[in-house]
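Fold this: Kynureninase
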Amino acid sequence: MTRINATQSDATDPLRHFRERFDLPDGVIYLDGNSLGALPKTVKARVAHTISEEWGTQLIRSWNTAGWVHLPQKVGGRIGRLIGAQENSVVAADSTSINLFKVLSAALSLNPGRSKIVSERENFPTDLYIAEGVARQIGQGHRLVLADKPADIPAMLADDVAVLMLTHVNYRTGYRHDMAAITEAAHDKGILVIWDLAHSAGAMAVDLTGADADFAIGCGYKYLNGGPGAPAFLYVNPRHHGGFRQPLSGWFGHRAPFAFEASYAPSNSIDQYLCGTPSVLGMVAMDEALALWDEVDMDALRAKSVALCDFFIQEVDSFAGEFGLTLVTPRQADQRGSQVSYSCDNGYAIMQALIARGVIGDFRAPDIIRFGFTPLYLSFAEVSEAVAILRDILSTRAWDAPKYKVREAVT
Ligand SMILES: *Cc1c(COP(=O)(O)O)cnc(C)c1O
């Protein structure tokens, strides 16, 4: 690999003008946009407008006049473009966990007579917890079976598997699955596939249509910058739209919510996956945050993401061994997302010391320090500075102070 030079890379970066579209505090190098994306500047005014003009003045009329009622589909459409979804096959709603409950229940009902859900032990815990809950709820011998490592998955795709449920990019290691190949292998065995795009949407172009995925879910508050607790999203392949029901049969999924019928009749569009009244302030923030993505060239985004990660790895390589940092993210770009993680002793304290110096990443138990690279608002110069600060903290053992070892509720 040719060595990456920060000054040169910044000078030729086609995305560098996006930085000014975000509010970022001085003195902070933000390497945690994979956990909570930064604030796009226009979101503040848009949310303020919604509060004072729409809620404060137009009141209930705003459901129609300001289009509040259509926000789940509007926001879903904007996300759909980034993940290669067909028209009208994505909605924004609820949380990722709840959306997984809906699509996993739906997928299992589409594949009766098969009892296994296959996933990975390393998957994000909420995905596994929800799958356990769904299996228990159905109560027909369904069970979750976990692969210890990605290479074990193909051999687990047997005739009794109903659903393969994977996260495209692993939240701790950054490992990325080959979505098209795995989906095809599962389909060959009659298995439906759910992809969690929490660490993919907004980090790279995703092609759900090309991969022929059955269902997908993902977060709004990570690379999509929708704000803390932003609405999540949910994709259903159009071939599955009308064929079955998801169990959270709330009125927003009814074919005519305002007919106020006594009995549930599901919409046969993607709308069936809505449940109750959308969180309008969250939807508005999300809608505004997504507007700037219309201008983003996703190939340029991915190219910069790869270069930022390669650059970070290249620079940390020069001292990782000396200080016991082990790279757990694949070096090969086509096997990873947009983050770089190291396992190490004292990772929590090291990360706290970094944050105290303005370099914000995060820690994932038991021993991972994680750095997210968001191409829209990070420069190579910042990455270079973050590496220098990391090196300084390690060589001076600045992390070895009691104040850096006190665990907060959120790590
Ligand atoms: C962040 C993340 C979630 C979060 O789920 P919430 O319901 O929004 O709390 C779920 N799955 C994966 C893979 C994640 O990375």
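The mean pLDDT is 97. The radius of gyration is 22 Å.
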